């Protein structure tokens, strides 16, 4: 390649680079112009919103603030003013969202202090004392000289302490209620077990009673077997039958007539005479052994 051709190639590259740099510069200028224009429009919307808010026209002021944020989302003034306007209307949730947005967009300590201070006020309104303590601390980090923020911080700490004490008390009460509920369940379970045990014992008693009744019925049945067809015990009937036979035998024996001895009396008398005779004979034998003569006849 010749020296002339090399110079021409370098000139072409320089021309391309020059055109690119010029284009980039123009683009940056256009972007800056667009950004400045958007900021200008956003500021105008914020200004209109402030004017309407001072006139107590909240609805129109809110629309202007929203236009400012849609035109330039980074406009901290629009977010902050919209948030404070929500506070006056009692819309604390929306106010909290917008003020947090303004605190994140703010670059100066003064703006951050104001945003965090108002955030703390909103949290106190919502009874979120612990979160309010942190918000007031952030405000004081950006402006330690604000006595109002410091006073609000003291109130938030006291409120947070009371809420913590109440929370601990509620937890203790919940624990006691849980323990009592568990004790009640155990007592109920014990009662159910005792009832089941009593039912089992009653069932066993009923079975024993049924067995006893069956035994009584068997005994009764055996007793019924020993009864005659009239329902009277057979043993009693047999006793009466035997007694009747004895009576019948006595009736069959001849009764002694008046002035005569009965056969039984005669039998008894003969036995007595025999006994007497035996005694006399024994006495005679005894006298013979002694050599004494005794009379055998009776005197009249």
How large, in whole angstroms, is the Cα Rg? 68 Å
Distance between the termini: 214 Å
Report strand %.
Answer: under 5%
Compute the number of strand runs: 0
Determine the structural class based on helices, strands and strand pairing: mainly alpha
Number of alpha- plus pi-helical segments: 9
Mean pLDDT: 77
Briefly summarize what is shown.
By secondary structure, this protein is mostly helical. Helix content is 83%, strand content 0%. The chain is built from nine helices and no strands.
Observed structural traits:
300 residues; mainly alpha; disordered C terminus; 9 helices; 83% helix
What does the model show?
The chain is an all-alpha fold and 300 residues long. The protein has helices at 3-54, 58-71, 76-88, 92-105, 109-125, 129-142, 147-225, 234-252, 263-290. The chain is rod-shaped, with a radius of gyration of 68 Å.
């Amino acid at each position: 390649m010749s020296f002339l051709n090399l110079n021409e190639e370098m000139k072409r590259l320089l021309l391309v680079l020059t055109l690119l740099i010029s284009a980039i510069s123009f683009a940056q200028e256009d972007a800056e112009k667009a950004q400045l224009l958007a900021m200008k429009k956003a500021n105008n919307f914020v200004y209109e919103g402030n004017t309407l808010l001072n006139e107590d026209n909240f609805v129109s002021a809110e629309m202007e603030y929203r236009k400012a944020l849609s035109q330039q989302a980074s406009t901290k003034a629009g977010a902050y003013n919209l948030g404070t306007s929500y506070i006056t209307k009692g819309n604390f949730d929306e106010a909290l969202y917008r003020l947090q947005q303004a605190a994140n967009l703010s670059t100066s300590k003064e703006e951050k202090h104001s945003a965090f201070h108002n955030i703390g006020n909103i949290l106190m309104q919502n009874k979120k004392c612990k979160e309010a303590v942190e918000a007031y601390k952030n405000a004081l980090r950006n402006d330690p000289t604000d006595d109002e923020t410091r006073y609000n911080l003291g109130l938030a700490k006291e409120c947070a302490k009371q809420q913590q004490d109440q929370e601990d008390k509620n937890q203790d009460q919940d624990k006691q209620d849980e323990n009592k509920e568990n004790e009640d369940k155990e007592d109920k379970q014990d009662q159910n077990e005792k009832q089941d045990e009593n039912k089992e014992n009653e069932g066993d008693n009923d079975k024993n009673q049924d067995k006893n009744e069956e035994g009584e019925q068997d005994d009764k049945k055996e007793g019924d077997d020993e009864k005659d067809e009239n329902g009277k015990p057979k043993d009693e009937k047999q006793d009466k039958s035997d007694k009747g036979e004895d009576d019948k035998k006595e009736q069959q024996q001849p009764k002694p007539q008046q002035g005569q001895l009965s056969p039984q009396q005669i039998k008894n008398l003969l036995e007595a005479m025999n006994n007497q005779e035996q005694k006399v004979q024994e006495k005679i034998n005894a006298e013979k052994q002694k050599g004494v003569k005794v009379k055998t006849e009776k005197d009249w």
